[in-house]
């Protein structure tokens, strides 16, 4: 876990230094939002190597996300039609 924390810290610092160097606030915000991604990819790789992942179950979140967006959009359109 220490190695993963070091990876996340290094990703944050290197990303923010790069964002400061190119003088871009949007890049800095993107780095802050995604600095845990390398750590998550390493954990995914380690879990997949040990056989802990079932890919179709991991993909279910995308289906639920799409369903939530569709339901929210439907409710919004219905609300706008009624008001």
Question: How large is the count of helical segments?
Answer: 5
| Dominant shape | flat
Following the backbone from N to C, one meets helices and strands in this order, namely HHHHH
- Our Rg estimate from Cα atoms comes to 19 Å
Derived from helix and strand composition plus strand pairing, the structural class reads mainly alpha
Q: What is the helix fraction of residues, given as a range?
A: over 70%
Termini, distance in Å?
A: 53 Å
- Number of E strands: 0
Mean pLDDT: 90
Low-pLDDT runs of 5+ residues are none
| Beta-strand content | under 5%
Largest sheet features: none
How many separate domains make up the residues?
Answer: 2
Concise overview:
The protein has 83 residues and is mainly alpha-helical.
Give an overview in words.
- It is a single chain.
- The protein is mainly alpha-helical and 83 residues long.
- It has 2 domains: 1-52, no CATH class; 53-83.
- The protein is 84% helix and 0% strand.
- The chain has 5 helices and no strands.
- It has helices at 2-21, 25-34, 37-49, 55-58, 60-82.
- Helix 1 (2-21) packs antiparallel against helix 2.
- The protein starts with a helix and ends with a helix.
Main traits of this protein?
83 residues, 5 helices, mainly alpha
List the helices and strands and how they pair.
Blueprint: H1 2-21, H2 25-34, H3 37-49, H4 55-58, H5 60-82
């Amino acid at each position: 876990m220490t190695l993963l924390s070091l990876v996340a810290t290094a990703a944050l610092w290197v990303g923010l230094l790069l964002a400061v160097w190119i003088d871009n606030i949007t890049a800095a915000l993107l780095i802050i939002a995604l600095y845990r991604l390398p750590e998550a990819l390493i954990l995914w790789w380690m879990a997949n190597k040990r056989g802990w992942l079932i890919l179709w179950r991991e993909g279910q979140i995308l289906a639920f996300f799409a369903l939530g967006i569709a339901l929210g959009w439907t409710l919004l359109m219905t609300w706008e039609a009624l008001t």
